[in-house]
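thread: overnight batch results

M.L. [08:02]
morning all. the overnight job finished for the chain we discussed friday. pasting input first so we're all looking at the same thing
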Amino acid sequence: MKFNFPIIIIDEDFRSENASGLGVRALADAIKKEDVEVMGITSYGDLTSFAQQQSRASAFLLSIDDEEFGSGSKEDTAAALKSIRAFVEEIRFRNADIPIFLYGETRTSRHIPNDILRELHGFIHMHEDTPEFVARHIVREAKAYMDTLAPPFFHALVNYAQDGSYSWHCPGHSGGVAFLKSPVGRMFHQFFGENMLRADVCNSVDELGQLLDHTGPVAASERNAGPFVLCHQRHLDLKQDRVAFHRRAGRHRGGGP
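M.L. [08:03]
and the structure it wrote out:
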């Protein structure tokens, strides 16, 4: 399934007819040809506000040039770096893995200190490679990041729901096609969506593993969940969790053990 996580390009010249604008639009077009959406932003404003978009992006590309560093004095350089550093730090505070690239002329890179460079996936030197090559590099990093987002079971469930598998093991489910036989059923189907109905499966799907035997993606999800709950292994036994919840709720209400 293709999820909508665009590559965000921040460049004041994105719509300009100068060399920088033509170059960055050529790069954006090359990225789109790789079947990845691009969101172009032309106003810098407060860069940290764009950093808050990290949850909807697959990568950031921030364009910088010598003009932003003014005369090159310490004061002008410090002012320009303050904005860039705040942008990078805000993203990394929220997301340690999303790709961040700076894009500019080779001589511009000399202004960027190591503490910023360490947080980047790269500094792209404008005009030193073809837009198509640079686009493939950015898209590769974006896809590698996207591949890490879904935990094991959800990743397997998405693939299962999308690969045309029949779910006959769940009587009446079958992807919700029975709802399509009546007008109100179609309303239900359109409201909740086919993905939800295709993913409505029981615990006997080989591709998803077994809840009771702890195999396959289920076992992988248990191992993945372990560190987050500070234990060696977390069994995703939904029935036991539900019973334990009701017992705790009963004691809280004074309902006995």
